[in-house]
């Protein structure tokens, strides 16, 4: 997942930038007249028939804003001038948004008011078009009237994958092109030098600085190491590419290619001069590296951990400081919500009894390795510097933006006796969306669901004939930091006693203004120094010796390997049971939690290449780059090692229920991000699903309701505020300002503590004052509670490990405004444990000290009341300062979800929900 600061790189991406300011309505109309003439694609109505569908019309899905993510220049101009939408660009946004106020009366019969029917095939009266791409006779692409989703049916494997590629380009060509350039570190040259573009390419290229030879080697290795399935994957990828490139050629000659190519200067709207480059195999690996880094690469942050540990030891002394640090780290908190909750232990990355090989930096010696060199023009101005700093921080923390949730209930506790699942990935909100829907039916492939654009040769999350699967980000640590001792100069290091030159990898970019991005001309060179232990990320001294800290990721140089697992998931002859499902996802080397449901069984498996570390190595901290501390049987040439056995990964079949919201997987299984403590957003699902299971008779509607209710909950209000009010109300509140605030907060809490509109479409929250007060109070109370005891330096250092807050408006949080996902990272567990301790309640895994008021209930109460009064006095405009979309003080707008523009089409913002972007509701009625 991306590394976190106040805004994520994807939140900031603007391609091709804002269009409203540079085109006036009159000029738009003139341009449109000349652009509506290119011939559209002819398609005769036809019927696609469902095959081997065992869901009994009880599978549903949704993916806003809409399936169609391509728009011609004429359509972009119409959208910018008049707000009109291309067909199927926005038709899933309304149903998705409406669930926030419609879920309370939901029944099984009304689920598809808010979701799509995800049955296989298209009824004859619902066929909108049928296309034989490039005139092929072995594949058809049928699109339905309601959503325009492509249903690809092939009679040959090649034809099927050709159709998948063609359909992907029809729906996401521009987005695919953007992200292949992101993966190659070439976004600014392709789309413009906006600071957001600079930051995005820097963030990803820093951690995956691949040459063309590196990308090709990953393909070769994936094919060579996977036998017939590897050969099939290569054939599928080539067919898929042929389909993409056939669409590029057809849309170019027919002049219906995405209009962003004109706006960014790649095509001429009058003469059609210019080219759209064909895709090649290495582009797919570049794309995969971006997606893997975003959502499936847990770990890192060891240097930050070392800095905060040393700050703790400086504040308290070595022994007590280490105890304090460990209590905040919460490696294995006994109060943490678990996905595998039957008590089974899966030890991984646990604290060694006697750590060995640690290479902690000398105090104040750490500096971040520069990435940008020789900047000119806007490549070196203040905005560029700020973007670079943000990108660096995003790239180097362990607190990656893990998202997605899952609710799965065993048939033993459902009304029908069949398992029920509501699950999906929370991948942010973009226009066009990063994911796309499709159905693929062909030899050896039978699935419907979502795939990342440009990687959709297989369905990555979805349903097969009689089973469905989904994933959440897991975040276990597959990234380690090594201290390589320098020799000769700053660009040589000791490898097994030999002074070895670092490898210099460079990417030179330059840009000029375009219609889409008016950023003035500029350029820079991105430079990474690469060692056998991975890219250099920091410089420091350790015991006076000059070192470089490197980052080694087990999936580095293996971005293509996971293709085999996805191939298996789509193969109806392979996945026939929970055991074969688990076997399939074991072939996915990214860090995910995988969930499964068929008509009888449920299952869970945690994937990822977890390296076997040397005895005594503590995964939390940097270690010396010496053979004694390397991964077991590590080969630096191939970056392969011994990995923990499949049975050592958290896994389960037919547990009573599973929940996941990026929480801790199982007992003794340590994840890299901080915050797996007593209060986690996973509790919002756990509490609701546990109650449903206890009552029995769970239905699809009931499980959707549980998800939707949790999606509107303020975690701080539901799980921490009651104890805060208990402290405040331990004596009569005499201050009128504080008393009024307490009354508002209590009233909101009694109403459920949710951030929900007064009525659908009102764009105003019920209990708005209470929400404003809590949003303003949280950072103030955390500082007032902890800073005096921790000291300024340690309080600041711990915030680098775990941000204090992640409210929906992101006024204080790391995900950026309007991103939907909230309450993943914050100090709610710390506040919860500390306040309960001050109240004299039992706390398992307590903090090492009592912090609020030094442990005095009355002093703690004084701090809470003082900070509450300050918060109550803050105006809405101060709490919600406004941005490009929202005026200052507009609370609803500040929280609202925006489909962030990655192309030329804009969409309206919707009321906040904390739920998956793509979501399935499934209940299979039978099995093969």
Structure description:
Helix content is 34%, strand content 17%. With 928 residues, the protein is of the alpha+beta class. The strands form five sheets. The protein has a ten-stranded mixed beta sheet with strand order 3-4-5-12-13-14-15-23-24-26, with helices on one face. Strands 7, 8, 16, 17, 18, 19, 20, 21, 22 and 25 form a ten-stranded mixed beta sheet that branches. β3 and β4 form a beta hairpin. α5 crosses α9 and α8 crosses α9. The longest helix has 28 residues. The two termini are 37 Å apart.
What key phrases describe this protein's structure?
single chain, alpha+beta, ten-stranded mixed sheet
Quaternary state of the chains: single chain
Rg estimate, integer Å: 27 Å
- Tell me the span between the first and last alpha carbons: 37 Å
* Total of DSSP H or I helical runs spanning 4+ residues: 27
- What is the helical fraction, as a range of percent? 25-40%
The secondary-structure class comes to: alpha+beta
What is the total tally of β strands?
A: 30
Question: Largest sheet, described in full?
Answer: 10 strands, mixed
Shape descriptor = globular
